[in-house]
Amino acid sequence: MTGRVVDYNGERLLIEVPFSDTETFVKQDITEVDVELLDGRTITRAQRGKIRATIAEIAAWNGDDADTLHELMKASFIARTGRDWFSLRDCTMTDANAYLDWLIEFVVINGIPTDNPVLRCADIGKYLYACLANKKCAVCGKKGVVHHIDTVGMGRNRLTIAHIGLRAECLCFDHHTEAHYGQADFDAKYHIYGIPVDENLCKIHNMGV
């Protein structure tokens, strides 16, 4: 692959891609990739605190020593993402954010009691997606269902209409009821928002695609 110059609002950015196995892209019909920009800044005290607080909650849930658990979780994160080994003393902000988001997703998947996960994660969208994918309330972590932000409309069958692209949140019964009293105020109070559902989420929730 060769580098590509991207023009964004008058700014020029050269993206160098040191990858030559284009045959794999062709065979697997890969047409899109994610580009991650490493800004070189090191982890902040706030990031370190959020990571340690999340590790402490996971440790309290499974009974492990927090320091031992941290090393095990970090090793699993590195193995799954292919990142280089890092330390919370001086890793980049990018690695810290990615690790924190991965820990929060682990918390969501396993239903681990935690305090305000939405205020900890670096990418709220990933957290909201994980909540929908695992049917967990984005506010409290209890069992949740799809709360439609973009209304389906009267006389239309939610089981048959196409839902892809419609915005939704995953909420428990109590928070679902609260949201109906005022969506904007609800989202502002809990720092969440509706995200467009994709084909995967539609299949998980048996919604029409």
Q: How would you describe this protein?
A:
Helix 2 (45-62) runs parallel beside helix 4 (93-110) and helix 4 (93-110) runs parallel beside helix 5 (124-133). The protein contains eight helices and five strands; from the N terminus they run E-E-H-H-H-H-H-E-E-H-H-E-H. The chain has two domains: 4-119; 131-204, no CATH class. The protein is 43% helix and 10% strand. With 209 residues, the chain is mostly helical. It is globular and about 50 Å long. Strands 3-4-5 form a three-stranded antiparallel β-sheet. It has a two-stranded antiparallel sheet with strand order 1-2.
Distance between the termini: 35 Å
Oligomer: single chain
Helix content range: 40-55%
- Unreliable runs, pLDDT <50, ≥5 residues? none
Tell me the total number of β-strands. Answer: 5
Strand content: 5-15%
List its traits:
209 residues; mainly alpha; three-stranded antiparallel β-sheet; two-stranded antiparallel sheet; 5 strands
What is the element layout, followed by pairings?
Blueprint: E1 4-8, E2 11-15, H1 22-27, H2 45-62, H3 66-81, H4 93-110, H5 124-133, E3 145-148, E4 167-171, H6 173-179, H7 183-190, E5 195-196, H8 199-204
Antiparallel strand pairs: 1-2, 3-4, 4-5
Helix pairs in contact: 2-3, 2-4, 4-5
